[in-house]
Amino acid sequence: MRLSLRQYANILLALEKEVEPSNAQEMGKSFLKWLSRRGEKKLLPRIMREAEKISRERSGEVAVSIVTREKKDKAEEEQLWSFASKLFPQKKIIARFETDAKNIGGVMIQSEEILFDASLSRNMKELKRTLVR
Q: pLDDT over 90 for what percent of the chain?
């Protein structure tokens, strides 16, 4: 029976919880050997990302990308972070600020589950769609 990425990630997290820090490297090697025997070694990067996601969920954190056209100064980043916090109440925001030259202006805030798109690019596309009708 094949396991899902989430099941593999939960197994890895359970192993991590049970093992002493001095044996963590050996546990990692054993997990990798087990994946190899199952023919699923190539899934390891995806399993690791899923384990990180589960770990963030359990600790009440959410990873968020905040995308603007140009790099913002600290005060502007703080304002964007504050706005993102309102989109995800009761969550600790782990923000990653990015720039995208395709973004004419405005901001996009994206987590794994939500996309808040207040960019001019989106507004222009909506306007074009409206005019073409």
A: 56
